[in-house]
Amino acid sequence: MCDSTPRILSIQSHVVHGYVGNKSATFPLQVLGFEVDSINTVQFSTHTAYKHIKGNVLKNEELDELIDGLTLNDVDHYTHFLTGYSRSPDSLTKIAEIIKKLRSKNPNLIYVCDPVMGDNGKMYVPDEIMPVYRDVVVPLADVLTPNQFEAEVLTGLKMTNFDDALTIIKALHDKGVKTVVISSTDLGGEKLMIGLASNGVSCYKIQVPLVDTNFTGTGDLFAALFLAWFHKTGSNLKLTMEKTMSTLQNIVQDTYQKARAIQPQNKIPPKLKELRLVQNKDFIENPMITITAEEIRKKMVD
Ligand SMILES: Nc1ncnc2c1ncn2[C@@H]1O[C@H](COP(=O)(O)OP(=O)(O)O)[C@@H](O)[C@H]1O
Ligand SMILES: Cc1ncc(COP(=O)(O)O)c(CN)c1O
């Protein structure tokens, strides 16, 4: 355990079929050279955009027990902690305790928090989870990766233009977050999806062509790739955004094209849109930068 391999504890959902949560994050992280220990907050047959939702949610005592086992066996030494989809406020409170515990073992631990709550104006976890993220978990994060909706909900502010976006980013920095990354916004209108990233010194904008369908698991993949490239580039924010977005675009485009080959018209059902991670392993390992980030504003914090 004393080698230089980065080691992650990832607490996210698990699905039997398809790619969200730990299923979306673990494979790319392993391909990029990370040891990944995963705890599954839920085990569902599929993600929740499918018609039938079946499976179980991890109980708090079960989460405690798993962490206890890691501690008793002295294998709870991590360089990174990554969290995503959680369904209960209590489990989030537990996550806050776990961060503190892991930091007592490694004061340099990097915590990447994806505050998974919803998308396109709608919550898909219970509403009570929001204040726990806002007041307890977010202030402990080194890196926060909300989408636009989640950033708005956390700050109580609306994003209708870039000035609003910068105000929201500043509000999240003010909560103590060092690196704020908004994985997607609709500021690019109908044709472009725009992501933003700020380390308080520089803020970057990166834009990609909007593919005409909703994907699931892309946010989880984004957070995992961001974590990996932020580590591998020595916290180079511009390069991290470029590698992360280029990889996502390759996977999203490939997934879309294959789905459209089967279903040329109308809405694509979830099972045809599962992210093609395995098939894009080489690109994940060695991404070609196809999209560049542009600096839009310097110095967000004094
Ligand atoms: N429809 C889409 N068109 C193009 N890229 C997409 C699309 N959906 C997701 N992505 C890619 O996935 C990333 C994360 O997506 P996002 O929607 O923010 O995740 P989530 O809302 O699931 O947290 C985006 O930055 C983008 O690169
Ligand atoms: C079980 C589960 N886990 C995670 C997510 C989050 O997916 P995304 O990466 O698209 O935010 C979802 C989306 N509803 C889900 O159903």
UniProtKB/TrEMBL annotation:
GO terms for biological process: pyridoxal 5'-phosphate salvage. One of its GO terms (molecular function) is ATP binding. It is an enzyme of class 2 (transferase). This is Pyridoxal kinase. Pfam families: Phos_pyr_kin. It comes from the Eukaryota. It catalyses: pyridoxine + ATP = pyridoxine 5'-phosphate + ADP + H(+); pyridoxamine + ATP = pyridoxamine 5'-phosphate + ADP + H(+); pyridoxal + ATP = pyridoxal 5'-phosphate + ADP + H(+). The keyword RNA-binding does not apply. PANTHER family: PYRIDOXAL KINASE (PTHR10534). CDD domains: pyridoxal_pyridoxamine_kinase. It comes from Trichoplusia ni (Cabbage looper). Gene3D superfamilies: 3.40.1190.20. Residues 94-264 form the Pyridoxamine kinase/Phosphomethylpyrimidine kinase domain. The gene is LOC113499034. Coiled coil: none annotated. GO terms for cellular component: cytosol. Belongs to the pyridoxine kinase family. SUPFAM superfamilies: Ribokinase-like (SSF53613).
